[in-house]
Amino acid sequence: MTSTGFSRSRVGTRCRSGDDRHLAAAPGAVSRQEPDSAPAPVSPPGGGWVSAAERWLLERLLRRLGNPAIRIVLWDGQELATTDASPAATVRIRDRSALLGLLANPALGFGDAYSQGRIVVEGDLLELLQAVAGGLWSEATSNKTLRARIARWLSRLHGNTIGRSRRNVHHHYDITETFYRLWLDEQLVYTGAYFSDPELTLEEAQRAKMDYVCRKLRLRPGEHVVEAGFGWGALALHMARHYGVRVDAYNLSREQVLYARRRAEAEGLDSLVTFIEDDYRRIAGKFDVFVSVGMLEHVGRRHYRQLGEVIDRCLKPAGRGLVHSIGRDQPAALDPWIKRRIFPGAYPPALKEIMDVFQPRGFSVLDVENLRLHYARTLEHWLDRYQANEQRVAEMFDQPFVRMWRLYLAGSVVAFATGTLQLFQIVFTRPGANNISWTRAWLYEKP
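^ that's the sequence the OP posted. Answer follows.
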């Protein structure tokens, strides 16, 4: 098992896709067939042939991507191969509009055409994305200064107002609890797990993550914690049950709030945990601890200082906190397909950008940890479970939805495994709060 985890026999993260019914899955892998057939090849008006200009543009795109070891088959039967070696996968482009979309905007064009079945991947989707990832990363970093400036400018064009934040949350998180239950762990934790042992189950690793967060925060019975963005409520309930703290938890997703309240009542924790349907900007009260896991990437770059003001306002003089967020090594705009189809309003910040939450208010950052490989492993589990339930997803939605989420999960595995995305955990305190450990040794001791 390598650190990238693309061929884990136990978890089975090899991802078969499209018209690959004749291909055998790797031992222990889950091979999924699409229940409906993808659209037949289309000959566009004016003939189905591929022009020399179109072929040249496609070859140019492949060169920009570093000539990844893939094979492309066009709708008229023409083939392009970047290497004589065995390709990682075969990509079938079924019509001219799919090709033109790919040439105009590679990420958005591929994502949409793949979801619609107009681009079909024969072979392992993960291996295809891994082969292309290196070229995409080189392309993205070829002019770091200019691209960083563009990314910062784009991130400031639209602020996530409370109304826009609510709409963005509804787009992704209010799909239905039943859908997420098909592939998340039993507690519906939709953030990266912590694999203290690589062989942990997903359920064990998510419990380990929640304990890891609580131990970093040094929670003590009777303390009052505020959580910004609580998902399905697992961490808030875990803190109350195992650490004896009171929790006020804020979230904009109506479905998640109602689910969390039902669970708190069923588990007898509703006297300790209050789930509030509201924006983090409206947090009220004074708290010993602030925690946010997986919310910062949805806050919007323009609002980091405002988040710092909220923390400053609600945290007691000896308070402490933890922020856990997807991020990047350097500022860059989010993948356009992910931003448009999956996470509208999202922005994974560079570490230096995250400091805008803490520095203006004088917070002392004590510890920063990058857990990206843990998130890659988490996503492998999610992808495996999702593929095993694709037929049920198709019955709930449709085949384009099935393919869209398959691509999103597979692409996320590759992004974290290759270092395109990071996962930061940041612990901070008021500057005068010195009742802290001098080392991390206590974190790794058994509770």
